[in-house]
Each structure stands twice: as structure tokens, then as C-alpha cells.
Amino acid sequence: MKKPSQPTLTDVRKWPATVSVTEAARAIGCSRSHLYERVKCGDSPVKTIPVGTRHVVITADLVRLLSGEAREAA
């Protein structure tokens, strides 16, 4: 099975408001398990929202990361 290609920033800008950790990891260029581990440890490079037993990534924050914009202080 062919692995899906990494989406461009233009592609990501067209995504819905939230996406799965799997999709976000593909956009960042890391493994799903690595991003889940970062979420679990509380040092994810993107903002996430818990939904039941899983998390979703806020697409606007993913765009911020991929475009090199500074992250706002929490």
C-alpha cells in the first residue's frame, strides 16, 4: 500500500477546524505515536482538544506551526 504524501501548507489551510492526530502528524512529518506521546506528556507542538478517549488537533494551530508563526503565551 502506498503511503499518502505529506500535505502542503496550502492543503492544511483547507482542512476542517480540527483534524485527527494522525493527519496532524502526517502534516508535521512525524509518526502518529510520537505526536500522541507529546500530547500525553503535555508538550505537543500543536494545541489539542480531548474528545472522549482521543484528541483532535486544532487546525489553526497546525497552520501556525507549519508557517513558522510564534506561539502565543498561554
Key features?
single chain, 74 residues, alpha+beta, 43% helix, globular
- Give, in spatial order, the strands making up the sheet with the most strands: 1-3-2
Could you spell the SSE succession in H and E letters?
HEHHEEH
Net shape: globular
Low-pLDDT sequence parts:
none
Question: What does this protein look like?
Answer:
There is one protein chain. By secondary structure, the protein is an alpha+beta fold. 43% of the residues lie in helices and 16% in strands. It has helices spanning 9-13, 21-28, 32-41, 59-67; strands at residues 18-20, 48-51, 54-58. β2 (48-51) and β3 (54-58) form a beta hairpin. α2 (21-28) crosses α3 (32-41).
Entry summary:
With 74 residues, the chain is α+β, with helices and mostly antiparallel strands. The protein contains four helices and three strands. The longest helix is centred in the middle third of the chain and has 10 residues, at 32-41.
List the helices and strands and how they pair.
Blueprint: H1 9-13, E1 18-20, H2 21-28, H3 32-41, E2 48-51, E3 54-58, H4 59-67
Antiparallel strand pairs: 1-3, 2-3
